[in-house]
Q: What sequence folds into this?
């Protein structure tokens, strides 16, 4: 798990679709959150999430003013004062679509985190997110290589141009 969440020394603020943009987790949810926090992520509270959501999109599309911006700059745009100099902002989400700006591609160091109970729910949610975001995106699946049935299920349901397996995408 730790290698999957590696943040390295630097963040490339314009996280692209092959990078982590949305995280769907099931099982070990608290450990995943703790590991992200340990590595410099800041989990947005509801007020902070609303402020960041307000700057992510412009007319329903990626706001060009946030593309490639750093966390301090994004916080400034949103009128937030964040402590501890986070490297990454994470907003927990439960919806997909126009009512949830975090379900969109962001191209900045802001991630959506969805929690589900089962692998099947994770695959269904990933499918919905890809349908919402449009074709051509990349998906990444972290699972044990022996989970061949899960890999096949993910690849057959989540329709992306690329499905990366066992690739540690650093954010």
A:
């Amino acid at each position: 798990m730790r290698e999957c969440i590696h943040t390295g020394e630097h963040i490339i603020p314009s996280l692209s679709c092959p990078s982590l943009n949305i995280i769907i987790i099931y099982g070990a949810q608290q450990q995943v959150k703790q590991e992200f926090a340990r590595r410099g992520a800041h989990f947005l509270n509801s007020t902070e999430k609303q402020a960041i959501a307000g700057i992510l999109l412009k007319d329903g599309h990626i706001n060009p003013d946030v593309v490639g911006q750093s966390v301090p700059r994004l916080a400034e745009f949103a009128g937030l004062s964040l402590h501890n100099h986070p490297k990454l902002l994470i907003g927990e989400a439960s919806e997909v679509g126009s009512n949830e700006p975090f379900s969109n591609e962001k191209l900045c160091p802001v991630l959506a985190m969805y929690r589900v109970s089962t692998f099947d729910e994770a695959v269904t949610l990933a499918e919905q997110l890809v349908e919402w975001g449009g074709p051509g995106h990349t998906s990444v699946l972290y699972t044990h290589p022996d989970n061949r049935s899960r890999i096949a299920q993910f690849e057959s349901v989540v329709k992306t141009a690329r499905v990366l397996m066992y690739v540690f995408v650093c954010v």
Residues 2-165 form a domain with the Aldehyde Dehydrogenase; Chain A, domain 2 fold (CATH 3.40.309.10). The helical segments are 29-38, 46-56, 71-78, 119-133, 148-157. The chain has one domain: 2-165.
